[in-house]
Amino acid sequence: MYELFDEDFDALELAEGALVLNQAIAPDTQVDWAKAEMQRLLQEAELSLVHETHPQQRFEAFLRLFYHQWGFQGDKDAYFDSSNAFIDKVLERRKGIPVSLGSLLLYFGRHLGFPIEGMTFPTQFVVKVCWPDQAVQYVNPFNGEFVSEHTLRAWLVGQKGPFAQLKPDYLKVTDHPTVIGRWLALIKSALLREERYALALRCTDLALTFAPDDPYEIRDRGFIYQQLDCPQMALSDYQYFIDQCPEDPAAELLKNQVRAMSKTQVTLH
């Protein structure tokens, strides 16, 4: 099992950090192929944009290259498929979700010299473009379209209700360790939905290297252990959550679960 620490991700491009994360979860991740493919596409982009001299027009040409010529697109048919969160699969399928597509946009764009950063807006990952002495631009990585602050607020209203406000903190650049932490949670959620419990357990173990005593992560690990027919370990994790979060509504439900599982264990022995 890899031990992943914040400083590892600070030193890497986001897509490179995602590959480290992907391999820690699924050792068969095609890391070498993905790195070679990213390098190949970067060289192709450099050649394609060589005659574009105006910075903003060059950036728009880059977006056309990424979404139209290369064919990257948001996966509208299977948004929650775990493949959309593994960089090698995204490069292979040319489909992804905002954070995976956004990480590739950042990888290519930053190497090409564009002033772009990533931000974890409450509704999704967004790419922020900061041209000198000009208004900030925002790109939706899912489709490569520019979005206004008005649109961002509309996204917020759709998620949080009609009184949601576009707070300055929502528009701040997010550091890589924070993005990777959320990416890990996203992958775990997808794997649980797909009932791929062994890989989901790897996600939980990785998350616990960052926060060893997180009761919610330990509760989730208990659920995974239960699905993997490891009842004693599940009971231990459930009990930890109950002890640490007695006021949480889930604690009462888990108490019933623990009692039922304990009776089963006694009967079996």
Automatic annotation (TrEMBL):
Segments forming domain Protein SirB1 N-terminal: 34-184
Similarity remark: Belongs to the UPF0162 family.
Entry superkingdom: Bacteria
Name of the protein this chain belongs to: Protein SirB1 N-terminal domain-containing protein
InterPro entries, per the entry: SirB1_N (IPR032698), TPR-like_helical_dom_sf (IPR011990)
